[in-house]
């Protein structure tokens, strides 16, 4: 026994190891973001051979400071451990895993945009205010951190607004493909119009409008999201707040995230 709390040495070591895991856990997404910034998933994806040697990878990395080349094998080893890349002993090379493939630019079911949004300093800083938020009377931690709603912040910061909208659109690709697949065709039967409320930059509505040409699809979102988008054919963009007015349509589409 080590102390009067009856914790034995093994339990203490296990608790200590878990604590270190929590303390250093911020490094996992930081390393993945670093790989995206360096373009490593894209370089591996574009390589003519599925396996790329470490030396060729280093040559292909743009703007790498030569004095820091020795850190690349360490970064790659960590990312293999995180499941992004496979390491191939033969040839000392790397290839993309299925998870790594999702971080390639413009991958259709990719998670890259969402990853960059979730790792954005504005978002990370919001999470740091969780403790304050639980003690104040504001409805979101974002307001605790920035003194305004996420939507108002987006309206004032076009760059962050773009990153957020891209992340939302990328997140909607899978659901868009499902909605227009055979398994959901009946959902739109008999409808002549629908409005996607808070439809962002229109990823879902565009897919539906393309698949069901006789269905008029309206995207309603805040003015800073709609921007100067006009739409064409059976797709229309409307700038405004759902709390003021919702365009008339047979059906409304509202994507809701339900905790599982
Ligand atoms: C979580 S995002 C979802 C975007 C899109 N539906 C998707 O699935 O990709 C929520 C959207 O609601 C929009 N929004 C927030 N408040 C709104 C309001 N009062 N009226 C209309 N849209 C609003 C935001 O601008 C944002 O685009």
Automatic annotation (TrEMBL):
GO terms for molecular function: O-methyltransferase activity; protein dimerization activity; S-adenosylmethionine-dependent methyltransferase activity. This is Methyltransferase. Keywords: Methyltransferase, S-adenosyl-L-methionine, Transferase. Transmembrane segments: none annotated. It holds the Pfam family Dimerisation. Belongs to the class I-like SAM-binding methyltransferase superfamily. Cation-independent O-methyltransferase family. COMT subfamily. The keyword Cell division does not apply. One of its GO terms (biological process) is methylation. Residues 129-255 form the O-methyltransferase C-terminal domain. Residues 20-105 form the O-methyltransferase dimerisation domain. The keyword Nucleotidyltransferase does not apply.
